[in-house]
Amino acid sequence: MQQAVLPSFLRHYHAEGLIRLGGEGDGGYIVSEKDVQASDFLLSLGVNDNWGFEKDFLKRRPVSLHAYDGSINLRIFFERFAATALRLSGPKTIFNSAKMIWDYKKFFSNDRIHFQKFVGYVPGKRYITIDEIFFACPSGKIFLKIDIEGFEYRVLNQLLENQERLSGLVIEFHDVDLHWARIAEFVKCFALRIISVNVNNFVPLMPDRSPTVLEISFSANATFTSDHQSYPHPLSRPNRPDRPSYEICFIE
């Protein structure tokens, strides 16, 4: 198993009562069951064509959901289906493409709303700011999932400003080798504590064995032991199933 090296500020204690939501591969995250049950609202920034995490979360805690992603909509899924059918891609591929349309229409209904907008500061109908997103959330505790392909660094200040509203946070950090200082400052100032760190194995490690993409889960309610967590966690799964998970080593 290949070893990834992470800075010591990400080292944390073992948290009890953890669960995995979102399936076995990419899109699955380790969270605290206590955070799920303490949540009054689910906010998801970046879903693409995988809402398994949101689906598993709402099975355990059926709250309202706002999901923001400008890269998908029903028309795009119909276009994908048409393309697979015209290419005669095979029964399984065509079936999965049709199933995506059905699942999207069924899941995003009633109080589970998909907003076809990117998180950003570009003027126009396709973008919405993080401040506007928080303003649209109802009162109560929010569980927040973020996977917005590098824009996460531009919303960290707003996360700190709204941290008392959060029951839990799952966030994917990209290009971490360029942003260690910003991540360290965020972790230091953030009241929620780290309960899980995962090195995304879709991308290789740097020559010094540092990763470029990290998935980190934070908790407001977890109970911790006096033992440090070692990795891979028993609930960890590789983002790419055909590649092994990384063992994580923390250094000063």
> What's the tally of helices?
7
Strand order of the largest sheet: 7-6-5-10-11-13-12
Structural class: alpha/beta
Main beta-sheet annotation: 7 strands, mixed
Helix and strand element order: EEEEHEHEHHEEEHEHEHEEEE
Number of strands: 15
Unreliable segments of 5+ consecutive residues: none
Q: What is the residue-averaged pLDDT? A: 92
Strand content: 25-35%
* Principal-axis shape: globular
Distance N terminus to C terminus? 22 Å
Per-chain topology:
Blueprint: E1 3-7, E2 13-15, E3 18-21, E4 29-32, H1 33-37, E5 41-45, H2 52-60, E6 64-68, H3 74-86, H4 91-107, E7 112-115, E8 118-119, E9 127-128, H5 130-136, E10 142-146, H6 156-161, E11 166-174, H7 180-189, E12 193-199, E13 213-219, E14 224-228, E15 247-251
Parallel strand pairs: 1-15, 5-6, 5-10, 6-7, 8-9, 10-11
Antiparallel strand pairs: 2-14, 3-4, 11-13, 12-13
Helix pairs in contact: 3-4
